[in-house]
Amino acid sequence: MAKKKLDKKNKEKTEPKQGTKLWGGRFSEATDRLTEELNASIGFDIRLLSHDIKGSVAHASGLERAGILTPKEREKIEKGLKSVEEDILSGRFVPTIADEDIHMAVEGRLTSKIGSLGGKLHTARSRNDQVALDTRLFLREETTKVIKLLKELQKTLCQVSEKNIDVIMPGYTHLQRAQPILFAHHMLAYQEMIKRDRERFTETLKRIDVMPLGSGALAGSPYNIDRRYVAKLLGFKKISTNSMDAVASRDVLLEFLSNSAILMINLSRLSEELVLWNSEEFGFIELSDAFTTGSSIMPQKKNPDIAELTRGKSGRVTGNLVTLLMVMKALPLAYNKDMQEDKEPLFDSVDTIKACLQILSPMLKKMKVKKKQMRKATEEGFLMATDAADYLVASGLPFRQAHEAIGKTVAFAAKNNKNLSDLSLKEWQGFSKYFKADILEVITPEASINSRTLTGGTAFKSVKSELSKAKQELRKKP
Fold first, then answer.
1. Which residues are known catalytic residues?
2. What are phi and psi of 22, to 5 degrees?
3. Nearest Cα to 241, choosing from 227, 223, 258, 254?
């Protein structure tokens, strides 16, 4: 009830009247209500409040340094801005669509608090470079958080690998059992994917860290603002060098969304495997009760909803990338109102990838790995067929002839309902004279795994080395 009264009170104060807009001097007719509703972004860009305040405080310092504001005026504006932030956060002031966006809402509230001095704050800037600044401040902060979450997921994947270093499982191609591998090798494959994701976000962060303030609407500012001083106040390492590019480009947003889409595709693949492995058909893992849900009708069900949701949300994040690509397609320089559509897909992607990353690490840590079931699965499906072919190659037979011989051997075993390990030496030699008694030692999962000692292979030695290097890299700062 109190909030409704507050909304009404604010609405009465800010409801547009002819000529009352902060930009309304040229207009003689009140803005149509439907125009206001479609034009307004305050419903979502209010999320940039703290960044808008921070940018405005720094801009006021820049105006003081340029002699446009006195020290007392700058101090009064700064106190007023912080008061406006408190008003909005506490609910004492609730912006409405009449305020259009967070920038106008802050400026309008500031002016109502400190009088006409509030109008001086917009000197030497436009909403175009202001929103570009706010977005970069927001994106820099959120990208830093994402990088930390990615590093934590990498650490988790290493921990799961180390804990299960001796677990043997089937490796798959075409979702068909292919060759024996270490479960740790499989987990470390995802560690490599996430590592590249982290590298992509880290590289993007360098391009985000450029201050656009001072670019004005598109042509720069005629005021002698020390842009490098303001950039230093805001923690930016660089300033933009072309005013049109600074206000009209959304490259770093597109890059962030592209990184996010690639990340979610990687997380989707991991999630899909967790869903499969958790099923009765595979039975390789069991997800904790804390990260599964039940059925409304079937009491026995234990559904991997978190993995499924992560898998599903990859489409959402990919869609956000496509949305902004289409918004920016063929836009002439410089700023166009279309670009207001950049915030919602950005905010949604930030929230989505953070939510998925935050829950995946604890879910993986509590996952139960079923060692016996995985090992048993390697004994079926002729997974050591390639090792038998390699055995023949080592004996001097060309690989294609070896491949044909083992193909016939597999066909014979399948027809007689046998595994390769069930075949006698005499049966082996029926397909090639090169087979000796030691073939039975070659076609075990352990022998197959340990034969692949090249860097990047699944041998115990190679995987332990890979794990050690990954852990060492993760100990580095940041």
1. 174, 295
2. -65, -25
3. 227
What predicted TM-score, i.e. pTM, was given to this entire model? 0.91
Q: Residue type for 109, please?
A: R
Percent of the chain residues topping a pLDDT of 70: 94
Nearest to 378 by CA among 167, 177, 185, 189: 177
pLDDT of residue 450: 95
286 strand-pairing partners: 368
pLDDT of residue 294: 87
Spatial separation of the C-alpha atoms in residues 131 and 147, rounded to whole Å: 24
Nearest to 268 by CA among 317, 303, 199: 317
Distance CA(341)–CA(337), nearest Å, equals 8
pLDDT tens per residue across span 48-104: 999 999 999 999 999 999 999 999 999 999 999 999 999 999 999 999 999 889 999
pLDDT digit string, tens, across residues 158-178: 999 999 999 999 999 999 999
Q: What is the largest CA-CA distance in the chain?
A: 101
Note the pLDDT tens digit of each residue in 181-208. 999 999 999 999 999 999 999 999 999 9
CB 104 within 8 A of CB 98: no
3-class secondary structure for the chain?
A: CHHHHHHHHHHHHHCCCCCCCCCHHHCCCCCCHHHHHHHCCHHHHHHHHHHHHHHHHHHHHHHHHCCCCCHHHHHHHHHHHHHHHHHHHHCCCCCCHHHCCHHHHHHHHHHHHHHHHHHHHHCCCCHHHHHHHHHHHHHHHHHHHHHHHHHHHHHHHHHHHHHCCCCEEEEEECCEEEEEEEHHHHHHHHHHHHHHHHHHHHHHHHHHCEECCCCCCCCCCCCCCCHHHHHHHHCCCEECCCHHHHHHCCHHHHHHHHHHHHHHHHHHHHHHHHHHHHCCCCCCEECCHHHCECCCCCCCCCECHHHHHHHHHHHHHHHHHHHHHHHHCCCCCCCCHHHHHHHHHHHHHHHHHHHHHHHHHHHHHCCEECHHHHHHHCCCCCCCHHHHHHHHHHCCCCHHHHHHHHHHHHHHHHHCCCCHHHCCHHHHHCCCCCCCCCHHHHCCHHHHHHCCCCCCCCCHHHHHHHHHHHHHHHCCCC
